[in-house]
Write a structure and sequence with these properties.
With about 500 residues, the protein is α/β, with parallel strands linked by helices. The chain contains 22 helices and eight strands. The mean pLDDT is about 90.
Length: about 500
Amino acid sequence: MPKSPPNSILSQLNPQQREAAECIDGPVLIFAGAGSGKTRALTYRIAHMIRECGVPPERILAVTFTNKAASEMKERIRSLVGSQARGIWAGTFHSICARMLRADGEVIGIPSNFVIFDSAEQQSLVKEALAVLDVDPKQFPPPEVHTRISRAKNELMSASDFRRTKKGSFEDVAAQAYRIYQDKLRQNNALDFDDLLMRAVDLLAEHHEVLEKYQERLHYVLVDEYQDINHAQYRFVRLLSAKHGNICVVGDDDQSIYGWRGANVGIILAFESDYPDCKVVKLEQNYRSSGKIIECAAEVIGNNPDRAQKRLWTENHPGDNVVIYEAINEAEEAEWVAASIHNQVDKRLAKPGDFAILYRTNAMSRNFEEALIARGVPYRVVGGLRFYERAEIRNAVAYMRVLHNPADGVSLRRIVNKPTRGIGDTTLRAVERLAYGDGSDSIPLYEALGRVREIEELKPRAQDAVAAFHLMMEELRAKAERVPLSELAHAVIEDTGYAV
């Protein structure tokens, strides 16, 4: 496409950002260093495509790694092009894949009303799978088994594929658990996050008419944080962009930190091999940090022999030297940090709110908190449980999920006795035996609740409790057919006893 006119909206960008924004057609690799104005360049690039190049917004797919990044990008584009921004497909890999699967997943056996299990629900199913295998959870910790299953899915390996490549006893157990885990997901009409990508790739790879539909719709594919994608995400992007070849990826191999969860930094480094005719643009001017910090970071990362050549620079003030303190243990580290803060606050050189302490895991906060308390330095811990992670919120959402999808046994187990209604573990196990039996002729757990009178081993009192719960849920399901979602949520809170 032609260069933008002098009065273009791109006139607000620096030369490298503008070059990145003007490269519209064909494969483009943008190396965006930390603090280099990457988001600004991307949003102006999309706005330029729509306003000055005549690209219909519905032809553009912008994939980000977080919902927050997607929302921020859409908001910035909206400020530049107005209501046209609504037509852009912008979201995370997971949200884009879920959208495709809900629209077309039935051709690969995925009902449009599938639910997405979160991390806690996935862990619950892994524990159930290991219980079926009757293995020691201390020897085969559920989180580690789940991580191995997730890694296999990121490599687009089915349970049978994984079992054929297993090595060692842990891999053997993980392979068996993978198969049972998938069976349980199907019983619950659920997908996990990795399934969204894996099954979307299956959908596009196995059904040419579906692939063609999305290739015709999405002529331009833009992927942010490309240094952190895994094999499944790579295949997804390659399939979508294969017809038109208009793929723009943005990332920085120096900032790749998610190898532990399947990210492959080699993918961004191989982009020029994948697309020999690609255009490479480097955003190297840093707007965020002081000169000393940039210099220090460059010296450290420069020791990595397996990286794309680039060097950050800045016009910012040099600032103070970077200080490194080597402590002998975590307690001494925390004491030194607290003492340093207290010293500057005591001399009125700074206020407590001028400081931030970053730590890698939540468990590390204790030493810092104790050291700050001992010095009398006021502080607050940022974070804690997110709204949707609070138990009462998870319970309320679980009720809504069962109303939407009665096959969701994980959510059903969570709420069947919350608030307490006399349905204990013994009663639930009896209902599960009716539901699952020997596994050859199982029925959904929700259906088994409705047939509780058939369970002779249960006392009338327990049967009454289960029957009352099932009746309440049936009444709420009927209500769900005729009232708005907000009214249904209110009814759930009232009818289940949560409002008491």
